[in-house]
Amino acid sequence: MQRAILVLVTVLLGAAWAMAETTLEKIVRTGTITIGTRTGSPPFAYINRQNEWVGFSIDLVEQAIVPALSRTLGKPVKLDKKETAPQTRIPLLTSHAVDLIAETMTDTRSRREAVDFSLTFFVTGAQFLVKKESPIKGIKDIAGRRVAAQQGSTNAKIIRERVPKTRLQEFPDQPTAFQALAQGQVDAYTNDGIQLAGLKAKSPRPDEWKIVGDFYSYEPYGMALRKNESDFRQLVNLGLMEAIESGKYFELYDKWLGPKGEVPYPLTPETRRFLQMQVVPK
Amino acid sequence: MDPRVILSNLEFLIIQGFLGLGVFTGGTLRLALPAIILGSILGIFIGLGRLAGSPWIRIPATIYVEFFRGVPLVMVIFWFWFMIPLLLRIPLPEYGAALMAFVVFEAAYLGEIVRTGIQSVPRGQVEAATATGLTTAQTMRHVVLPQALRNMIPALVTQFIVLFKDTSLASIIGYIDLTKAAQIVNSREIRPFELYLFIAIVYWLCTYAMSRYARYVERRLRPA
Amino acid sequence: MNYDFDWSVLWTGQSGQWLLQGVMTTLRLSTLAWLLAALLGILSGALRAAGSKALSRLATFYVEFFRNVPILVWMFFWYFAVPPLLPQAVREWLFHHGAEFWAAISALGVYHGARFSEVIRSGIQSIPKTQLEAALSSGLTVTQAYRLVIVPIALRLIIPSATNESLNLLKNSSLAMTISVAELTFQTRQIEAYTAKALEALTAGTAIYLALCLGIASVMAQVERRYAIPGMIARAGRAEH
């Protein structure tokens, strides 16, 4: 009995000590960086037809951030992926289950109270996905209609506040919400424009869908990390800046979002400029 | 009704979703088998605890059983998934969270089966054992438990079937079991009837086989 | 432990309202599903115990198929797979009148109907044959014997396992959140999503489920005591899966 208590105390102390380490220390110790990402958000993070877990966000980490980490820390770093969803990503980050959230997370002021964000790596806004014949043209048309959203998303919150007459149906994740739209249980699905473009492109018959409405929200995507980790944040941002500077970022952008990419979504000149201006001088 | 979608995704559904041998951490069996074994072990302790003489053991055991029988399993899964990492500052993958939730939850039900099984052994057996000089522990080990186990087996297998079906709830936290695999495929192909009917049949085959086995064991064990 | 407790989120803002709405939805969902389940259970249980060969076979198929598949799979099946099979007009009506709610009721009702069927069947079968023989020999027809003697006794015998199954139904209603029904578990996650206070939200949800289940269980225990048939209680209702 006493031995059991001793073992338990040692384990707890060990765990507590382990948790006092910083993210960089953990990466050096384990040689792995664990990211939280999605499985149903093409082209940022999804499972493709060959059942591989791929995407733009995943590539950015793998090809821009991991090299910066490996170079600075002086040892090879491996990438480990875990699935996260809007409701769980912040708890999973703060509990050290993941080190970085690399998916489709919008950088907002209220979120910055709980976590820190990297540079913005993508810009989009919320819109609606509807069937081709739908009369819905934007946020003015959705009052009284059935609209699907992901539970806990910024889109759900905005619709709830701005158009309370909407019959909002909140689903635990994007695949279920899209299934509901595909089968007509709802009239529209709201999410960030790019995610809608991804769903549309990957659906069996993309011409059946259209994306409507002006951006009713501004959604800059950033990668979230824990607070008080300036060194780690510095390296993450360094990786992103170097990728933008060297053109690697635009190469990856083209691969996933270019005209021949998984989900064509042209980079506007303003966005390109914005991204380039985030790269501060050496 | 187009079975081709099943055939083209069969590997993902069965190898990854059901067996758990794919690229992702997943698999219905990978969750069900350890849960059954660990849940049974914990269940035996809980069941014995409920029969203990000392109220220090009996009352917590009773509270344990009453608590887990009064909350939905999905709540317990959320508890482990959200709170263990937060409270103990240990990272917890979905597999770990789901497995712990199942073991802890099912142990309450298995504990009840153990308890009623032990209580179904006639008092005469215990009295005879004590009369021949065996201690309480020896009586339990050599006389009561073997007979109790025989009585419990049908109810235990029944509960194992429940546990097997409950593994589908792990899909809610993203664990790629058979149910989640079907959802992933459906959000790509939009053929819900074929896909959900297919996994219903797979589950049915497994549980029906298990319940036939339970009935077979029950028949074998019924006193002549 | 690095967590800022803030229990006030449960009653400030919208959380309290959400919890209340969640409870109401859970109760409404569970009650309607229970009625469906009881109907299907009694029908199929009776058919299995005393119906014609063909009807008994049909009832057995219903029970064996529906109860051996996880309820979550049924939730998805009834919500996603069934509506496309319905005629256009029915589908339109459903979509405008809470399809997810009806799908959840169907899934829960049909699934638990199969389980109730087992409870009822074992209740009927545990009544000694002598009761039926006595009833028949005193001049009642088979239908009358069942209606006036067997079924009333069976209903009283099965109170514990029927209560157990009903509580299972209540607990399984939590899975309706996966098809966007805003019941209690959904609202728990909603509070967590908007306030980031997972511990408080989960505690509230768990406490409410516990209160509901323990409350119903103790009421039914009283009922069972009142209607107990001395000498017969231990016979019936072994917990079925």
Q: What order do the helices and strands come in, and which of them pair?
A:
The complex is a heterotrimer of chains A (282), B (224) and C (241).
Chain A: H1 2-19, H2 23-30, E1 32-37, E2 40-41, E3 45-47, E4 53-54, H3 56-73, E5 78-83, H4 89-94, E6 100-101, E7 116-131, E8 146-150, H5 154-162, E9 167-171, H6 174-182, E10 188-192, H7 193-202, E11 209-212, E12 218-225, H8 230-246, H9 248-257, H10 269-277
Parallel strand pairs in A: 1-5, 1-6, 8-9, 8-10
Antiparallel strand pairs in A: 2-3, 3-4, 7-10, 7-11, 7-12
Helix pairs in contact in A: 3-8, 3-9
Chain B: H1 4-19, H2 28-50, H3 55-68, H4 73-88, H5 94-119, H6 123-131, H7 136-166, H8 178-189, H9 192-221
Chain C: H1 15-50, H2 53-67, H3 71-81, H4 88-96, H5 99-125, H6 129-137, H7 142-157, H8 159-172, H9 184-195, H10 198-227
Helix pairs in contact in C: 1-2, 1-5, 1-9, 2-5, 3-5, 5-8, 6-7, 8-10, 9-10
Written account of the structure:
The complex is a heterotrimer of chains A (282), B (224) and C (241). In chain A, 40% of the residues lie in helices and 23% in strands. With 282 residues, chain A is α/β, with parallel strands linked by helices. In chain A, the strands form three sheets. In chain A, strands 7, 8, 9, 10, 11 and 12 form a six-stranded mixed beta sheet that branches. A three-stranded parallel beta sheet of chain A has the order 5-1-6. Chain A has a three-stranded antiparallel beta sheet with strand order 2-3-4. In chain A, α3 runs antiparallel to α9. Chain A is globular and about 65 Å long. Chain A starts with a helix and ends in a 5-residue tail after the last helix. Chain B is mostly helical. Chain B has a single domain (4-221), classed as Orthogonal Bundle (MetI-like fold). Chain B has helices spanning 4-19, 28-50, 55-68, 73-88, 94-119, 123-131, 136-166, 178-189, 192-221. The longest helix of chain B has 31 residues, at 136-166. Chain C has a single domain (26-235), classed as MetI-like (MetI-like fold), CATH 1.10.3720. In chain C, α1 packs antiparallel against α9 (184-195) and α6 (129-137) packs antiparallel against α7. Chain C is flat, with a radius of gyration of 21 Å. Classes of the chains: A alpha/beta (282), B mainly alpha (224), C mainly alpha (241). Chain B binds chain C through residues 66-67, 69-75, 78-79, 82-83, 86-87, 89, 155, 158-159, 161-162, 165-169, 171-172, 179, 182-183, 186, 192-193, 196-197, 199-200, 203-204, 207-208, 211, and chain C through 1-3, 64-65, 68-74, 76-77, 80-81, 84-85, 167, 171-175, 177-178, 185, 188-189, 192, 198-199, 202, 205-206, 209-210, 213-214, 217, 238-241.
